[in-house]
């Protein structure tokens, strides 16, 4: 079955960086985009951007430009999201989710989602 | 503050029907497809509806979606206690800060 398995929880100090991995199985990794979405404690969902696993091309939400880096390793069907210059309000569960490219007039959905990776930023 | 507006909470009795609204604008819902997600406590979101009104394989027909203008609605019939969850609408926003956007979420309580 289609599955996304993410790396484990992280605790980081303010100013540090974190890199979360997302291993895909059960489908052709390069056939779909990989999106990243985060959810702060008790809050809603926030889209961060996507990576095209086929080309490596990326599209980041304006808020995260210059601050997030999404990469992939097609040899092991794994996508990565690295967030730098962490602040306390970056404490959240970070999800990867498979989907189409999205965009105006195009289908937009996320399925499935990884189990989530809790990143805690604390001094 | 979320781009899409949802009621914070809704409630209904087991077996009843409930609807959850999602309001946006012409830059998002008005010109793009809407999807809906169910998030059970402590778990990742799950896709319920995509392309406004389509159900993925395995999603029962108790769940339905519709869209009119700049608003979308999720309907759930035959409510079960297992439906208690947070529900989120999502779409694409084509404004200057283009990207995926979500509603703030609606907590469904099955009384």
Structure description:
The complex is a heterodimer of chains A (123) and B (111). By secondary structure, chain A is mainly beta. Chain A is 0% helix and 46% strand. Chain A contains no helices and ten strands. Chain A has strands at residues 3-6, 10-12, 18-25, 33-39, 45-51, 58-60, 68-73, 78-83, 92-99, 117-121. In chain A, a hairpin with a 6-residue loop joins strand 5 (45-51) and strand 6 (58-60). Chain A is globular. Chain A starts with a strand and ends with a strand. With 111 residues, chain B is mainly β. Chain B contains no helices and nine strands. Chain B has strands spanning 9-12, 18-23, 35-39, 46-49, 63-68, 71-76, 85-93, 99-102, 106-110. In chain B, strands 1, 3, 4, 7, 8 and 9 form a six-stranded mixed sheet that branches. Chain B has a three-stranded antiparallel sheet with strand order 2-6-5, with no helix packed on it. In chain B, strand 7 (85-93) and strand 8 form a beta hairpin. The mean pLDDT of chain B is 95. At the A-B interface, strand 5 of A face strand 7 and strand 8 of B.
Keywords:
heterodimer; A: 123 residues; mainly beta; six-stranded mixed beta sheet; four-stranded antiparallel beta sheet; globular; B: 111 residues; three-stranded antiparallel beta sheet
